[in-house]
Amino acid sequence: MIDKIYKELAILLIIFIGIWVVFIYVPIIPKAPENALSIEKEQQIGELLIETYLEQADILNDSLINNVVDQIQKRLISGLDSTNYDYRIYVVNDDDINAFASLGGNVVVFSGLLKYADSPEEVAAVLAHEIGHVEERHVVNKVVKELGITLLLSVLSGGDPGFTYEIIQQSISTVFDRRQESAADDYGLQLLEKSQIHPNAMAAIFRKIRDEYSSSTYETLELLSTHPNTNRRIKKSLEYKTDEEFEAKPFIDIDWDKVKESI
Amino acid sequence: MEETNSNYHPVSQPDDIPTREREDAMGGYLMMFAAMAAGLPLPIINLLAALIYFYVNKAKSRFIKFHAYQSLISQIPTTMLNAGLVFWTFRLFFYQSNTFDDVFSIGSEYEIYWGYLIMTSIANLLYFIFSLIAAFRARKGQFYYFLFFGKMAYHYAYHINSNENKVIVNKPPSI
Ligand SMILES: [Zn+2]
């Protein structure tokens, strides 16, 4: 009998390890908090937020830069099959090499990123990543999780402007989790390919950011919020297999050196 | 060597088991619930309580010994799973790093964690249900065998250790 009981132990172990493995593949994750906010509402709140943010931000208003960002944006939008968002990209004077997506498809790029990138493709790679966060609704997910849907909706009823500012700060400062970063990377890489931009551009810019912020400050940067895996992210971008028919289309109208000089 | 039923003490029938004994046997299970509730933040507490209960009661009768032992050993894996869950949750909470990502290709740490969480919940639920059934059966003076743990407890409580009451006198001749 004593031999047979080990058979039963084995059965128990197999059952429980089986349950574990099954639920790794079939995750029962609590209902996505982002579903509480419709895209229309998100756009409305997003507009209020970005207005509040831009009031105090140092917007870079240079026709050359605006034109360049516009071209990059157009190219990326052309790569999106369909989107519910009306993307707006703003350039703000700030030396950090960073960019972030706020609610409703509003994306802010810091001038430090433009200054640091060696090509419009590298900027496009960062923007593609941010668009990934928007399309996958990570921004809403994050803000709803942290502030709750009621507080968020109260912005629409003309709440306290201090609070509106608080929300925009939240959406900038808090980091996404690793799974979201990874999903935004995947989305970005595919978007780059569909926009006829070589996905390796993402590796190039990530590598530069990593080397620049080798130690302390990186945690606050959206782009490097998942620091320990930066190498892995770079690798993923380098290993990304483009379609055989893929052909990169350069931004022929952009003189990047001139852009960098003008910042 | 083939083991037969003669290697085990006979099991007693409900009529032979006094109420007092039934209650102590049932207590083994019910006591775990109380200890588990109290020990939730630190799962080691209920294990200690279970051990104490077991040592206090095991000598009273084989019937009690069986139930108390089954209850004790069946909660060890549940307790370990719970301890792991507490530890892992804290780790995820304070430390967002995802080193697992690089180690296993099956999923991110969150996915592995969720699977673990669900498995642990199921283990706790099963433990709870089966313990209640066993407590109820013990109260009626009956046996109730869990998968694996039941046989182990039976073996532990009823097996006749050959050295226990057989003194070896005769031996075959040495060649
Ligand atoms: Zn990101």
Architecture overview:
The complex is a heterodimer of chains A (263) and B (175). Chain A has one domain. Chain A has twelve helices and three strands; from the N terminus they run αααβββααααααααα. Chain A has helices at residues 4-25, 39-56, 63-79, 111-116, 120-135, 138-147, 149-154, 161-173, 178-194, 200-212, 230-239, 256-261; strands spanning 88-92, 99-101, 106-110. A three-stranded mixed β-sheet of chain A has the order 1-3-2, with helices on both faces. Chain A is globular and about 85 Å long. The N and C termini of chain A lie far apart (81 Å). The mean pLDDT of chain A is 84. Chain B is mainly alpha-helical and 175 residues long. The longest helix of chain B has 33 residues, at 62-94. Chain B starts with 18 loop residues before the first helix and ends in a 10-residue tail after the last helix. Zinc ion binds at residues 129, 133, 176, 181, 184, 222 of chain A. Zinc ion (ZN) binds next to helix 5 and helix 9 of chain A.
Short précis:
Chain A is mainly alpha-helical. Chain A has 12 helices and 3 strands; from the N terminus they run H-H-H-E-E-E-H-H-H-H-H-H-H-H-H.
Question: Could you give the topology of this structure?
Answer:
The complex is a heterodimer of chains A (263) and B (175).
Chain A (H helix, E strand, L loop, with lengths): L3 H22 L13 H18 L6 H17 L8 E5 L6 E3 L4 E5 H6 L3 H16 L2 H10 L1 H6 L6 H13 L4 H17 L5 H13 L17 H10 L16 H6 L2
Parallel strand pairs in A: 1-3
Antiparallel strand pairs in A: 2-3
Helix pairs in contact in A: 2-8, 3-5, 5-9, 5-10, 10-11
Chain B lengths: L18 H20 L5 H14 L4 H33 L5 H4 L5 H31 L9 H10 L3 H4 L10
The structure holds zinc ion.
Zinc ion binds next to helix 5 and helix 9 of chain A.
